[in-house]
Structure formats: structure tokens, C-alpha cells
Amino acid sequence: MSRAEQNFDVLVVGAGLVGAAFALQLAKRTELTIALIERAPAISGNDHPNQRVVALGTAATDLLSEVGVFDSLGQEFCYPYDRMFVWDEHSDGELSFLATEYDKPFLGHLVDSQQCNWQLQQAINFTNTVSTFYGFQAESMVVSDSGVTLHAGEVTLSAPLLVGADGNRSWVRQQAKIFASNHDYQQRGIVAKISTSLSHQDTAWQRFLSTGPLAVLPLADNQSSIVWSADIERAENLLALSQEELQNEIAEALEHRLGEVSLLSQPVAFPLQSQQAEVYFKRHIVLIGDAAHSIHPLAGQGANLGFKDASALTGVLEQQLAAPDGQKALGDLAVLQRYQRARRLDNQQTDLMMSALHQVFKNDSPWFLSARGAGMNWLSDSVSLKELLVKQAMGI
Fold first, then answer.
1. What is the pLDDT of residue 365?
2. Longest dimension (CA), the chain
């Protein structure tokens, strides 16, 4: 054994939200030794401003509470919203969801992804059973009968189980030769922070436009984060506008329901794609979060699915440790298959739902517009169906 070789029970590749949360939850529930591996440097507390927020439901915030991070975020970085309002550009269709209708204080929280990730990484620094390897540029991954070994320079890390949490371009998935289907929506997601002259009313607003939906997510101090999913040509035109012109475009797209709009950050765009791994595991290797699946952001469910993956895998491994073969079999196919059974269907159904909604609101034929508006209003009056949608969004 070389001096730099280190052995662990679990290697976690990817110290983003899902990877860091998984490593921390697994450490809280077990005595397994864990290596958290990240090719980027550790997040600094001075890395702001950040424009990306994630809408988290109950399952995700329960995980963050369990690992001791949720309460430390505060309203500046974790803002509760108690209402959702959705309406359509080309029909009279409207949908409204109120937390009080379901005896809940709120529908979810809008969480600053970078601040949350920093808090998770900070918590890991005080966890004795987790070793961190930031700036770790893995050069190779070798799978043997006993587990997985990563090499980077003179450093070698080994474990019976490797968890790939390294995003939708997952290096782990590629090295494991796990195929992932990809669908390009031919859209760009434009994100920015804004303030509005009228109150956002602690409401998540979303208007479906023919070129893609515009979501306005409420934050503290009457600020909001926008996610404008627009066809490529429309997105390029929006990004080419002056600040004043773009502010006016946003206000008009919202029918001035929030009054005048002021941009607080430079807009940033990213391509919109969905992807599903053919399988979530091979022997000694398992994928969670965007490494296994990614979806269209129109309902803000991507991070929620990733946190559900993390909790499900933690539960499966915790259960395995109580078995006779326990720790030695963490990376066995039968163990990892239990995780896939627990999560794959939910992830696939959510992806299909987002793709279907995307198609529904892109169809602008006159008869379909009329039916769409009537359908939204019918759904608004259907207590049971609305409750199912709210439970999906809240992770209940």
C-alpha cells in the first residue's frame, strides 16, 4: 500500500447540494467512514452574489433539518412561500394553491443554493467520519471484486461503494459506462434577481407563455428570483436587451401584476435538457441526483428529487448495515437494486409529467388553447386533484 493510499467505506463524488447532504446524513446515521470528493475548491462564504435558488418541499427540508443546516439558513437564504398562482397567456385558465387549504403554514421554501451548499460543507468540516478532498481531479476509476479505486496523482482512494453525485455531466456515470438518454428542449433558462414595486405576497408566480414559462419565486425584502424558460431565439433576444428594456419585458410578461420590475443582478442563461440514466447502479457504483436524472425546471422539482434520492440511499445502506453481511456488501447489486426500486419510478414519472406540461403549453392551436384554459379552471375546482399536485410539490 502506498503512503498516499486511503481506504474508506463509501466514496461520494460530488460535494454539491445532493452529494454533501447525502454524505452528512449518512455520517449522522451510521459510523461508516466517508470520503467526500469534489473537483472544484470548497465553497467560500464570500462567494456571493448568487442568482440560483431551489424550491424545496417538505422531504428536502426535513433532510436539511436532520443534518442541522435548515435552521441556520434564516429567511435571508431560506424564504417560505404560502401560495402558488399559475396563469396562461393564451386562455383564461388560472390555478391557485394556498397552504391554508391544506392546513399547512407554507407550501415550501425558496433556498439560496450556494449558501445552503456552503452550510452543508461547513457542517461536514465538523463531522469526524467524513474526510474531504476538494480540488481532486480523478484520473481513473478502477472497479474490482472488492470495490472501487480512484486515482489522482499520487493519491489513491478506495471503498466498497462509490456514490456518483457529480451532476448531469457525471464523470462517474461515464466511467461506469452507464448510458443516459438525453432530451434537449431547445430552450434556455434565464435566471436573475429582481425587486418589484408591488408586494410579491409570499407567492410563487408562474405564467405560461407561448415561448416558455416565466416563474417568479419570492425572496426576503420583497426581492424575487426569476426563471424564464424561453425558446432559444426568444432567449437570445431577451439577453440582448438593455437593462431597462428587459425590466419592461418581465413586467409585461407578468401583466404588471407585480408592478414595475428592477433587475438586481445580471441575467444568466443555461440550456434546458432532461436526462435519464438507463440504470442507477452497477456493482460498487450508484448514482444519485442529476447524475442519475435531470428534468425541465418548470415545476422546480429537480433538487427535491435529488434530496429524495439521498434519503432513500441512506435508508437502504442503513438497513444493510443491520444484515449479517453488513458492511462488506454495501456495494452489492442486490443492495443497490433496492435503492433503484425505491426511486426510479418517481423520478421517471416526474420527468414525464414535466415533458407533458411543456408540450401542453407549447401547443397554440385555437381549439387546444380553449381546451387548455377550461382544463386549468376545471383543475382549479377539483379539490382532490389539486391536493395531489400540492403533495407532489411539497414532497409529502
1. 55
2. 71
Please check the confidence at residue 373 and state whether its pLDDT lies above 60.
no
Write out pLDDT tens, residues 202-243. Answer: 999 999 888 888 999 999 999 999 999 999 999 999 999 999
φ, ψ (nearest 5 deg) of residue 260: -75, 150
Residues 20-52: tens digit of each pLDDT: 999 999 999 999 999 999 999 999 876 665 668
Q: Are 69 and 123 in contact (CB under 8 A)?
A: yes
Half-sphere exposure of 344 (CA within 13 A, CB side): 14
Q: How far apart are CA 378 and CA 373, in angstroms?
A: 9
